[in-house]
Design a protein that fits this description.
phenylalanine biosynthesis; Alpha-Beta Plaits; 41% helix; 12 helices; multifunctional enzyme; D-Maltodextrin-Binding Protein, domain 2; six-stranded mixed β-sheet; 357 residues; binds the ligand C=C(O[C@@H]1C=C(C(=O)O)C=C[C@H]1O)C(=O)O; alpha/beta; single chain
Length: 357
């Protein structure tokens, strides 16, 4: 076939895609009207997951699973925006890994609000300035983000969904010669995670490592100061126009960060592969057996606990703790219901949502 023939075929398929997408949007609009009349929630991650699973099972290729999901996530975001434009607050600045995580869920067409702190993301959602908030909760190399854990306890927001992204670092500079670089800007954690690259490349050179608040800020500074460099995300380097010298300079390519999508008054239906997050403030948690007995309630019902973090209660000069727990399953599952019913006074449910890995 000639190029023109092939392009004609593509045009005719695009015509059909457009028609089908608009037909889909007409049904979405009706769903939106139904939801408004019953005052129910627009974003249904478990329904979106179900659609993705069904599409992946049907997909015979050559479209890859990740390409298929990226396309559908944009369709969902466009659909939700038609039902009701959604504003998403995220831990900024623009180009941060949290921004990337937010976009991976809410697509390119949602309205994003970069926030300077994790607390201000929580507050944006609390006050209704944003419908959703996205914050990091843990990195698989560095552990949890305590500020997020503490705010989950302090505020009354729900976890609507989680997202995970692979963290890759880029070395960006306007200089061609590494020996000319006087300062390298990045976040302290990024210096740690790229230590092998830094040792190998700057051994014997004079460059000073300067920690700044965010990797995006590092990119911005490297854009303004010629003999400097930034260790940042690829999108931040592009955003600030700093040439990328090396990509993927992190020590471990298994480096992943997990993010939470927060909302007010949110409830997912069970999807069949859910995770539940709880906060436990057990009475006399320092007494022998209190914590063990509580954990045993999960074990006895065959519920797999996937995480437990202890955080200081900050009550007087004591060393006492509350706990953040995660387990497999949904709060509607009878076994988990039993536990929640036993603990109405000392356990807070933060949400049940689709598990990503
Ligand atoms: C249309 C709906 O609303 C949203 C959009 C979806 C879609 O585009 O398929 C799916 C789930 C919801 O996040 C729905 O709930 O079915």
């Amino acid at each position: 076939m000639t190029l023109q023939n092939l392009r004609d075929q593509i045009d005719s398929l695009d015509d059909q895609l457009l028609q089908l997408l608009n037909q889909r949007m007409n049904f979405v609009r009706q769903v939106g009207e139904l939801k408004r009349s019953t005052n129910s929630i627009i974003y249904r991650p478990e329904r979106e997951r179900q659609i993705l699973d069904r599409m992946n099972a049907l997909n015979g290729g050559p479209l890859s699973e990740s390409a298929l999901e990226a396309i559908f996530l944009e369709i969902f975001a466009a659909a939700r925006n038609m039902e009701l434009p959604e504003r998403v607050a995220f831990l900024g600045p623009e180009g941060s890994f949290t921004h990337q995580a937010a976009e991976s869920r809410f697509g390119a067409v949602s309205a994003y609000m970069a926030q300077p702190t994790i607390r201000s993301v929580f507050e944006s959602v609390e006050t209704g300035r944003a419908r959703f908030g996205v914050v990091p909760i843990e990195n698989n190399q560095e552990g949890v983000v305590n500020e997020t854990i503490d705010l989950l306890n302090e505020k009354n927001l729900m976890i609507a969904a989680e997202a995970e992204i692979a963290v890759h670092f880029t070395f960006a500079t306007q200089t061609d010669n590494l020996a000319d670089i006087t300062h390298i800007y990045s976040k302290d954690i990024a210096f740690r995670q790229c230590s092998k690259f830094l040792n190998d490349s700057f051994d014997g050179l004079q460059a000073e490592m300067v920690p700044v608040e965010s990797t995006s800020k590092a990119a911005k500074m490297a854009a303004q100061q010629p003999r400097t460099a930034a260790i940042c995300s690829h999108i931040a380097a592009k955003l600030f126009g700093v040439p990328v010298l090396f990509d993927n300079i992190e020590d471990s390519n298994l480096n992943r960060t997990r993010f939470l999508l927060l909302a007010k008054d949110f409830r997912n239906e069970p999807s069949g592969r859910d995770k539940t997050t709880l906060i436990a403030r057990l009475q006399n948690s320092n007494s022998p057996g209190v914590l063990a007995e509580f954990l045993q309630e999960f074990n006895a019902r065959g519920i797999n606990l996937t995480k437990i973090e202890s955080r200081p209660l900050r009550e007087g000069a004591t060393f006492r703790y509350w706990f953040l727990l995660e387990c497999e399953g949904h709060a509607d599952d009878p076994a988990l219901q039993e536990i929640l019913n036993h603990h109405t006074a000392d356990v807070k449910w933060l949400g049940s949502y689709v598990r990503v890995s």
